[in-house]
Structure formats: C-alpha cells, structure tokens
Amino acid sequence: MPRPGGNPEFGTKYRFDYGREKPLSAQVKAQILPETKQQLKDLAEKQKCTVPDIIRTAIDEYLQKNVE
C-alpha cells in the first residue's frame, strides 16, 4: 500500500529517459583483469562517457563484423 501523501505518478511521470529507442534490460557479466578495467576507466574518462558505453559500442562493432 502506498504511503499516504505519496506521489502515485512517481514511477511513470518522472521516469528518467536515456534517449534510446529501446530500453536496456538485459545484462551480461564478464570477468576481466584489473589492468583492463583501469584501461577502460581511463578511456571512458578521456572520451567523456562511461565504461558500459564503451563496452556496448565494442560489442555492437564486433557483432556487425562477425554476424552474418
């Protein structure tokens, strides 16, 4: 039961929009070396993006090259 005086539109009206056509809902986990993680962090800082953005881009590029 919602809290009295709460906002009933909180989950719909105030949802954050990432600017993507489709929401990202699936997850993949990979174990990497600490040095690789640091390189990804440094690259993300240099490119002013996030590590997940770099990984998504790399996966997309790999799939475009290798999936027929």
From TrEMBL:
<dbReference type="InterPro" id="IPR013321">
    <property type="entry name" value="Arc_rbn_hlx_hlx"/>
</dbReference>
<protein>
    <recommendedName>
        <fullName>Ribbon-helix-helix protein CopG domain-containing protein</fullName>
    </recommendedName>
</protein>
<dbReference type="InterPro" id="IPR010985">
    <property type="entry name" value="Ribbon_hlx_hlx"/>
</dbReference>
<dbReference type="GO" id="GO:0006355">
    <property type="term" value="P:regulation of DNA-templated transcription"/>
</dbReference>
